[in-house]
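Hypothesis: this fold can be encoded by more than one sequence.
Test: take the structure tokens below, design a sequence, compare later.
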């Protein structure tokens, strides 16, 4: 098994006043040739939006965009006519395809909104744009790794995207031991992102907001050092 480790404090950080953001991979004004992507995983942004502010309407094209609120609420609006407010415990998927405009706002007066915005390069271009959201709490099994996003056309559970990729979340108990097995032989590997807590993979201890890309393996096991919430993003290699 091979690994690329991204400590939380090694990510790019920008303070835009209303927006505080960490970029795991190259994005906007941040460029690092060693941090362009992990397979089809292109962007992993960890954002905090001040109360009463947000992203004005802006365009996207040919990208699978997954938003996971961690704290507060996120109001979404788009050129397809969709409007919704997402809360912690929910997830949003948007296929930008031929092109879509959308906005994201924190309508709260006194609470920051924290959320992950993740981009995955799709396996097909110029699809009809689409939008979906869901409550993922019903999909999470205690102390297990649960799939929440699957490849098109989906499996009837959670959401799907136009890529051979799986998003899974584990809300894991202290001192438990788990094994993650790749869903497909075509997968490059899995990117592990620590939302909270601490786990150990071999001799590497990961804590809050650390990330590690694991590849050249079929599965891996890990120990949970303290109660943890862990995001797993399994993606193919762009060369395939």
């Amino acid at each position: 098994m091979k690994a690329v480790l991204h400590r939380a404090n090694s990510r790019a950080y920008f303070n835009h006043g209303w927006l505080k953001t960490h970029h795991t991979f190259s994005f906007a004004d941040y460029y690092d040739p060693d941090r362009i992507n992990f397979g089809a995983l292109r962007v992993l942004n960890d954002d905090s939006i001040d109360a009463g502010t947000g992203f004005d309407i802006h365009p996207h094209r040919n990208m699978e965009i997954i938003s996971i609120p961690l704290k507060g609420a996120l109001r979404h609006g788009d050129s397809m006519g969709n409007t919704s407010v997402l809360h912690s415990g929910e997830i949003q998927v948007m296929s930008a395809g031929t092109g879509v405009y959308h906005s994201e706002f924190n309508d709260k007066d006194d609470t920051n909104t924290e959320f992950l915005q993740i981009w995955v390069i799709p396996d097909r271009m110029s699809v009809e744009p689409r939008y979906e959201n869901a409550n993922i709490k019903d999909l999470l099994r205690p102390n297990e790794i649960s799939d929440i996003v699957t490849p098109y056309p989906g499996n009837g559970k959670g959401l799907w995207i136009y890529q051979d990729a799986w998003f899974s979340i584990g809300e894991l108990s202290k001192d438990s031991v788990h094994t993650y097995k790749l869903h497909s032989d075509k997968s490059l590997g899995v990117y592990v992102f620590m939302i909270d807590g601490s786990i150990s993979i071999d001799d590497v201890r990961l804590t809050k907001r650390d990330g590690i890309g694991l590849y050249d393996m079929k599965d891996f096991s890990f120990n949970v050092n303290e109660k943890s919430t862990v995001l797993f993003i399994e993606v193919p290699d762009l060369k395939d």
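The domain at 2-236 is CATH 2.60.120.10 (Jelly Rolls). The first strand starts at residue 2 and ends at 6.
Hypothesis status: open.
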